[in-house]
Amino acid sequence: MAKELKKVNVVTVGVGFMGGVTLAECAKAGLSVVGLERGAPRGLEDFLEIHDEWRYAINYGLMQDLSKETITFRNSESMPALPMRRLGSFCLGDGLGGAGVHWNAMNYRFKPYDFQIKTLTEERYGKNKIGPDYQLQDYPLTYDEMEPYFTQFEYAIGVSGTPGPFDGKRSKPWPMPPLAKTPAMKLFEESTKNLGYHPYPIPAAIASEPYTTSDGMQLNPCQYCGYCERFACEYDAKAQPTNTFIPAAMKTGNCEIRCHCNVVEILHKNGKASGVRYVNTLTQEEFIQPADVVVLSSYVLNNAKLLMTSKIGTMYDPKTGKGTLGKGYCYQITPGASVFLKEPLNLYAGAGALGMVIDDFNADAFDHSNLDFIHGGSIALAQTGKRPIGTNPTPSGTPRWGADFKKQSTHYFNRTLGVGSQGASMPHKHNFLDLDPTYKDAYGLPLLRMTYNFTDHDKALFSFISKKIEEIVKGMNPESIAVKGMIKDYNIVPYQTTHNTGGTITGKSPEDSVVNSYMQHWDAENLFVVGAGNFTHNGGCNPTGTVGALAFRCAEGIIKYARKGGMLA
């Protein structure tokens, strides 16, 4: 029988960036808060002088254990769904800090167009620009209304950069100047400028100089070691929940964080949540944590699953289009090209968000009148650091093994650049999340089932962006290039991006969304659900900056609710 614990004001399910923001803001406001994290505790001391590529980059040392929790996947409703047995298309985080520990720290804002995509698309191109099967929907907030929350997040984590020419208006500059500009970045900058485009440094949640966050946390200048992606930062240069929001919450004295706590149910009755039931993953003991407010702040897929297994909300039905829970799942497309250079560069040095980008073909910065898609994608060169195990680039025609492969691999290790894009994804009526009727997790709960495939819109955008990338890389004076092939059906492997969105979308009414503009659940006023699942579509860049802004908006709503109660306007 589950042991019932002392009631608290707020409990969060998951302690990554979203949980961290919630815990810190609510604890600073004087609320008693508990963060439940199903993974292990982690901190700077665990990563000092550990550049273990095999453990972290190849064997996913910071990622979710798929033998205990995974998803099933299919391309369409007519196909059987099978469990994802190894990480590939995306890398789900695990442990204290979640995916915010192993991220690359590219910290963009979505464009003003993203927040009013349906309205602005119809105003410029008319209704049904991309057909009736796409479910375009505005956010309940405009960019201008979201801007203060963007600023809060950026100053709380420390972002190095300079405003892009197609960005929305800002109330403050980026907190720090950009990271260093490398020779590789200059090649991209020169090529794009020669084509009339507008390159600028990728905004990086990585300190370019000593920085003190708005919560008083000290970050140190980046060492450009090349171990950001899939790794934790050993220098406290990359912003992570473990060196920003979590210590800010803990120093208030109002916060408790419990690791190895897997939440299996949201307890609720008569339109309100009363708390959560969780299992200690080490002892298998069950506990009930009562709370005035329950916040789902884990990853997109886990938030949606927990609502479904707890029977909160109305499941989306692709046949009728009714229901909202699970609706609007989106991903991204990733066209790109490899550039083989004549002369070597020091590409082993780098950082997760070190690079140059253009937004000339992102959002609605260009005319789509004669195109079969809307939106677009950023195009960037990122110098994340070449690592010896995972980096074996060779030109077309090179044998896959043997002496010639070894020779070419060694030769091109420091002579190969990648230019790629993250193309926006529009919600489609046949792309959605629900519960699998066959497979269960280690706790006896149904696995989340993903039904997803690339759409005609995705393919048209991929083709368009690929041509732009090819144009750019040809201007970088390469020895040769290799352009990524055209997409067909989506597959759960290989890696693409960990930018899953939708399923718990935000909106203006219960008929079009799961949560309101404060991420407050329409069906349970003291339940808040925050993350990229709130996105009404996926954008043309990394999502974390926008997710962070939504988290500050959500935290504001929780504090208002704690004081006044009721549904928030």
From TrEMBL:
Keywords: FAD, Flavoprotein, Oxidoreductase. It holds the Pfam family GMC_oxred_C. GO terms for molecular function: flavin adenine dinucleotide binding; oxidoreductase activity, acting on CH-OH group of donors. It comes from the Bacteria. The keyword Flavoprotein applies. Residues 219-322 form the Glucose-methanol-choline oxidoreductase N-terminal domain. Gene3D superfamilies: FAD/NAD(P)-binding domain. Belongs to the GMC oxidoreductase family. This is GMC family oxidoreductase.
